[in-house]
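User: My notes are a mess, but here's the protein and flavin-adenine dinucleotide's SMILES. Can you give me a structure?
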Amino acid sequence: MKLTTDVVIVGTGVGGLYCALNLPKDKDIIMITKAAVDESDSFLAQGGICMLKNDEDYDSYFEDTMRAGHYENRKESVDIMIRSSQETIADLISYGVDFKRNEDGSLAFTKEGAHSTPRICFHEDETGKEITSHLLKAVQELPNVKIIEHCRMTDIIEKDGRCAGIVAQHENGSMTEIDARFTVLATGGVGGLFENSTNYPHLTADALAIAIKHGIELENIDYIQIHPTTLFSRKPGRRFLISESVRGEGAVLFNSHMERFVDELQPRDVVAAAISEQMKKDGRPYVWLSMKPIPKEVILSHFPNIYRRCREEGYDVTRECIPVVPAQHYFMGGIKVDRYSKTSMENLYATGETACNGVHGRNRLASNSLLESLVFAKRAAKRIAETFDDYDMIETDTDLAAYRGCDKDYGKTVLNEMERMRKYHEQHNTENKR
Ligand SMILES: Cc1cc2nc3c(=O)[nH]c(=O)nc-3n(C[C@H](O)[C@H](O)[C@H](O)COP(=O)(O)OP(=O)(O)OC[C@H]3O[C@@H](n4cnc5c(N)ncnc54)[C@H](O)[C@@H]3O)c2cc1C
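Assistant: No problem, the inputs look usable. Here's the predicted complex:
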């Protein structure tokens, strides 16, 4: 089958949806997703989304983001994200997103590790679901957007150094060519490549493998964030996240002797390393997290999802500690993009977790990723609109049969490249220290 459209967007998380919402309404858009529309990491986000509270907070927010990122962040991108945050939150509210409010009606802010002040908007502990379900509803109401579920991109179509669309495979094995003037990759993170991850297992970094295959520039793909606290389980499958805002609200970590061993509000990489070290010392596959310092009414109102899920696993967090373990959580590196989310290939954009615009440096500051995804998805949409008439549709002559099975080693390709980059960084850092 062959489809033709103005823009094809791969992925229906916040990156893909917000890009679609910001493209001109007179352009035809096809969105595809490997799973069901509501099966994306965007639905899983718990803690919240950052916002610049006021002009006085700019320097502090900027510094917190840079410090968490070990000062390897692209300053221009951090600046763009922070300065666009108020407009983004206002836009979300206009789509019906309901953030927690103070009694006077102003936005309520919570705090997470490595933030020097509360500046995170939230909706209970299901902020991602609240945001993404409203964006999805708005996209589903657009007559110019068609969403195809359970349809997997297996490659892009490259012609004369430009991207001319994608090849995709449906669950029943049939293949479709989607020709498009512009292609946007919004395929999310890499958790599906790891045994222990908070991500959906179908997020297997396909876009990265495709980028490697076509010589599209990547950046820091070995920069992978391990979240310090996921609920320990002996069962296989996705790990349940215990949001950092739990520690922001007062929860503490204990070793096997019920002694504290780390400042719980340091950046994620520092806390995760301390927990791993402590697990080795204790000879146990977890440490303990106590939410008892948080008043019961706050647990029930701010963290109802965590409370419910822990109850299902047999723990009452208002009365007892829970076992927690670090797990793969977020991907700071990705397909290298410029300030407009454009990749190194003509007509190809990337947004969300699969893209690297440098906001996060070596380590992401909590609750910066939903914001970063939204801000740079909108910038991609605006850029595509501005340059739309500069490009013609590319005539293609694609032999779909040649693409069958082309993605079978994609996971291995990405893991090998991550390892190569890790070694490169290790060597480079050692040389710099000499
Ligand atoms: C448990 C959890 C909690 C989090 N909490 C927070 C938080 O509190 N605050 C915050 O800012 N961030 C948080 N994050 C991170 C944030 O949710 C993600 O970074 C963000 O949602 C990524 O959005 P995205 O659109 O890039 O990707 P996703 O939402 O993951 O969407 C990816 C999409 O791509 C599709 N896809 C992938 N490969 C293919 C393919 N080959 N073909 C077709 N479709 C494909 C998927 O099906 C999916 O639709 C959390 C993440 C997790 C996992």
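The radius of gyration is 21 Å.
User: Great, I'll file this with my notes.
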